[in-house]
Amino acid sequence: MGKNDPQKIYENIREEARQQDQSRQDKPLVMVGTATCGLAAGAMQVKEDFIREIKNKDLNAEVIEVGCIGHCYAEPLAIIAKPGFPPVCYGNLDDGLVHRLVEDFLAGDDPSYEYAMAALERNDEFPTFEDFPRGVYEEKLILEHCGFTDFSRIDSYIARGGYSALAKSLSGEPDHVLAMIKEANLRGRGGAGFPAGTKWEACLNKSGDEKYVICNGDEGDPGAFMDRSVLESDPHLVIEGMILCAYAVGASQGYLYIRAEYPRAVEHVRHAIKQAGEKGLLGSSILGTGFSFDLEVFQGSGAFICGEATALVNSMEGKMGMPESRPPRLTDQGYRGKPTVLNNVKTFAYVPLIIERGPDWFKSIGTPERPGTAVFSLVGKINSTGLVEVPMGTTLRQLIEEVGDGLPEGCEFKAVQIGGPSGGCLPESSLDVPIDFDSLHEAGAIMGSGGLVVMDQEDCMVSVARYFLEFTQHESCGKCTFCRLGTKHMLDILTDITRGEGDLETLELLKELGEDVRDGSLCNLGRTAPNPVLTTLRYFYDEYKAHIEEGRCPALVCRDLILYYIKPSKCSKLCNVCVGSCPTEAIYTRDDGLKAIDQEKCVKCDNCRKACPTEYDAVLRLSPPVLPDEKERKAK
Amino acid sequence: MSEEITITIDDQNIKARRGEKLLWVALDNDIYIPHLCAIKEEGRPNASCRLCFVEIEGLERPVTACTRKVEEGMVVNTRSPRIDRLVKTGFDLLLSDHNLNCRQCPANRNCALQVIAKKRKLKLKRDRFKPVDRKFALDDSPAEFAFDRSRCVLCGQCVWADRVEAEVGAIGFTKRGINRVVTTFNDLPLADSICTECKLCVEACPVGALYYKEDKKA
Amino acid sequence: MQLMEGEKEEILTCVKEVLGENSKTHENLVPILQQVQKRLGYLPALAMDEIAAGLKVPAVDIYGLATFYNQFRLNPPGKHEVKVCMGTACYMTGGDITMESFERRMDINEGETSPDRHYSLERVACVGCCTLAPVAVIDDKVEGKVTPTRVDGIMLTLEEGREETGINEEESGPEEGDGNG
Predict the structure, then answer these.
(1) Could you tell me if residue B13 is inside a domain?
(2) Contacting partners of chain A (3+ CB pairs under 8 A)
(3) Fewer CB in 10 Å around end: N or C, chain C?
(4) B130-144 average pLDDT score
């Protein structure tokens, strides 16, 4: 290969990037988190407020957009980096707070620590994120820079050492990259945990020079958004990983398959690809070597099944996203019938780090058989919602109680759902299971793409199982009998149960059918679809029984099994809030001034219960849906 | 010709060519395995009906015979409690979405589902699953044949005939999941589509969804 | 659906342009459909037929793709598109209640467009903003914590500019549909 020294070329690029970056550090920098979640919380308004306030004060400061730092519970967020101070992160921003920060910190020299969440660098005055309780357990590898770096500038990535793994690798032989990935025992982060090195090697060993590298960014699990976050916040990390993979297996073309629902990720990645091309890090003769690799974005069209590898490839070829039976594997016969490596976003993101810091470093994190970290999106009944990255082997209990800061007051843990529609619901007794592919599988869940939903006594396990089944049934491609019809019947049975219909035999049929759908379906969507049902049947059987035997939903969720009732002894004549809150005019004022609900009109929307002032708490949900006797109803 | 090998199916030694698909080897040797969607000429089988499950020694799970290439020394069982359970469930699922009015069906006594039921001693009625609730309009627009989607099992035989044998491209699969259906462009009646009424699709249909009007029973 | 003469021209021109900008291979079908829909707002039968002819693939296969993927629509969307997220977190915090509130206020069902084409209402699987659940996407702008009361507020802004249909017109809200910045 052409021996223009890639390292030397890279050093020049890096020096340039450093200077660019340095010149920015002379003035204060305000970084507003504008990933999709930040935007939804009003980050754009915050950005405009900063710009306006800075202009009003005629200050020399720059406002830029950054991605997601994972502390979603405190959005909108911003980081202020002012020379002479540690960079400080502020959460829950609004116009008042922005005004104050600009006046006190940017114009004055008071970092207003009373409003700060954390500093980003160790200092004598204020704690950093690492000092948070979750900091003890968190180990950020691929999320390290998400939200702290300007995703729109490749220079920020290069200045921190980005693309040096590529430069280093291009000076050596491709085998070396493969050897490091194998040595590091990197397992695919798409859910199943297949060893990446084995996959790459299979592709490498196929003859022919037309090979493809595809990044699976079709993150469709409801409740998971870590791939979106990485693509939006640190796109070059993924791109560099893909180039390294292409070099290792001998591919010259790659694609990032990003789902339709992530327009911002598409935008950021396209921009990043363009910049990498301009720097000579993508395209022909990368860093002056004989190695060429092009990268394009392929936008999905909204079909969950396309996260399945063979379906994804079909959809890229202009067909319906239908899975195929395997073998052949994609590494034998993939995109355009050619050998193809397909890995998840996170898998590629680990690659530059492993090359740069070495397999031993990677293996020192997590457990020996499953090194590295796992990324979870924590949602549901948990205080610190957001993205977290913890070493493999951390227990679920540590993740929920320490990293996620436990459940909000008044919430009592019931279950944790892991792995989305392909995963399962685990009870309290499974909380000491260490997080890794195999242990979770044994418990009945899967690692999946990392969605983790914490549920409490107000969440109904039957309803949750039904929710996931409805999702998979809706997203089933319809190709094979078991998934097309099996999930349909499972859903119908579950719907009956949420209405209190059925008997214990129904539960037996549900279990049998679930097992057969698992064993008989063509692809992993169908094979894993029964997991939410099978795990809830296994761990929460009594809750199913309460529905069908007593017509009672213990969590007061299933709407056919509850009714709304205003308890006269708690209601006040002086209050009318519930009447106004009702969208169907079902609430009326009785002769005595107290309120009551017309059951015929009530749509059980829960508005009145939320609206009722806490000092009264008069709106109750009753299950089974039977009104108290007349004496009690007419009381007071 | 590729190399000749020997495999064992249900304790019978059978000669086959390496690379052939197990389903066809079995059928050619009069060993019955249920199937609806398999097409011998198709390079990459659909494997969508999920009825041709067999157990192969050394493999943990039952596999579909239509997708498995035979290998020297392979030991295959076409019956086992696990297979029978899967086939029964698959069959019951198909019946839950199939018009079971056999007496009125033009394909009565000439129906692939009836064959499967007879060979595997399965009941041709719904005992476990409720019928999938939906209505299809009968398409009797062609001169000599009609398409009753309430009998369609989505095996794809007609689509193959239309594409590969007739080279027309009038019908295909559309929609997704439980709504998946064989239809024409924009759901036009066949007579208004580019269909040439060559009737190869009618010949291919194993269940009486596509049938000759003259065979229609009262 | 009956097309006006002008609409027909628009569709033919659009397809011609899109086909001109892409290589006419089967592989490019999905991007081609995406681009046509981006310009026209939906995929009219005429457009699918033209694309089929241009790419020499059976028209029923294009129809198959258009009905397989969630993203494609066969009818023109409403002026305002509301998508209610039904991800796990949204579902658990009352996404179905949010959906029902929109259905009630718009007087249409999920998946429908109002007869005057002012609104369309859809569900989306997950927009990945789980911590702000329940979430709705209003004309590409993500809105968090969409409680029934919030739905009322959103509806006020969307009602603005609606043709005289006897539905409230007393309030004026902020600028409508300002995109996602």
Answers:
(1) yes
(2) B, C
(3) N
(4) 94
CA geometry: angle B159, B162, B165, nearest 5 deg:
120
- Collect all residues of chain A within an 8 Å Cβ-Cβ radius of residue B116: none
- Nearest residue on chain C to B163, alpha-carbon basis: C58
CATH code at position A430: 3.10.20.600
Q: What is the CATH number of the domain that holds A298?
A: 3.40.50.11540
| CB burial of residue A277 (10 Å; 0-12, 13-18, 19+) | middle
Report residues of chain C scoring pLDDT below 50: 165-181
CATH number of the structural domain spanning residue B208:
3.30.70.20
Q: Is C67 on the interface with A (CB under 8 A)?
A: no
Q: Is the pLDDT of residue A84 over 60?
A: yes
Question: Other C-beta atoms within 10 Å of A125: how many?
Answer: 11
Q: How far apart are CA B218 and CA B213, in angstroms?
A: 11
Say which range, A14-23, A551-560, B75-84, B161-170, has the weakest mean pLDDT.
Answer: A14-23
The minimum CA-CA distance between A192 and chain C, rounded to whole Å, is 21
| Strand stretches in A39-195, DSSP E | 62-66, 78-81, 88-90, 116-119
| Domain of A571, in residue numbers | 562-633
A254, A355: one domain: yes
Do B43 and B66 belong together in one domain?
yes
Q: Is residue B84 part of a domain?
A: no
Chain C positions in Cβ-Cβ contact with residue A214 (cut-off 8 Å): none
Whether residue B204 is found in the same domain as residue B108: yes
- Residues A254 and A183 reside in one and the same domain: yes
pLDDT at residue A587 in the model: 96
Residue A390 lies in a domain: yes
CATH number at residue B25: 3.10.20.740
Q: What pLDDT does residue C1 have?
A: 62
Question: How close A258 gets to chain B, by Cα (Å)?
Answer: 21
Q: B11 with B67, same domain?
A: yes
- In whole angstroms, give the CA distance from residue A554 to residue A547: 8
Q: In this structure, is residue A137 part of a structural domain?
A: no
B85 in a domain, yes or no? no
Read off the pLDDT of residues A411-470 as tens digits, 9 standing for 90 and up: 999 999 998 888 999 999 999 999 988 888 888 888 877 889 999 999 999 999 999 999
Q: Where does a domain end: B28, B54, B79?
A: B79
Q: φ, ψ for residue C122 (rounded to 5)?
A: -135, 165
The answer to whether C71 contacts A222, with C-beta atoms less than 8 Å apart, is no
Tally of domains within chain A: 5
Written as six digits, the tokens of B155 are: 């095996």
Instruction: Identify which of B72, B68, B153 has the alpha carbon closest to the alpha carbon of residue B107.
Output: B153
Instruction: Please report the DSSP string for C124-178 in residue order.
Output: ES--S-GGG-S-EEETTEEE-S--HHHHHHHHHHHHTT--SSSS--S---SPS--
Q: From the CA of A303, how many Å to the nearest CA of chain B?
A: 10
Q: What integer is the mean pLDDT of A485-511?
A: 97
pLDDT tens digits for range A190-241: 877 899 999 999 999 999 889 999 999 998 887 788 899 999 999 999 999 9
Q: Which domain holds residue B33?
A: 4-79
Please indicate, yes or no, whether residues A169 and A223 belong to a single structural domain of this protein: yes
What is the per-residue pLDDT across A105-126, written as a single tens digit (0 to 9) for each?
999 999 999 999 999 888 988 9
CB A226 within 8 A of CB A232: no
How many separate helices (H) and strands (E) can be counted in chain B? 5, 9
The alpha carbons of chain B give a radius of gyration, in whole angstroms, of: 19
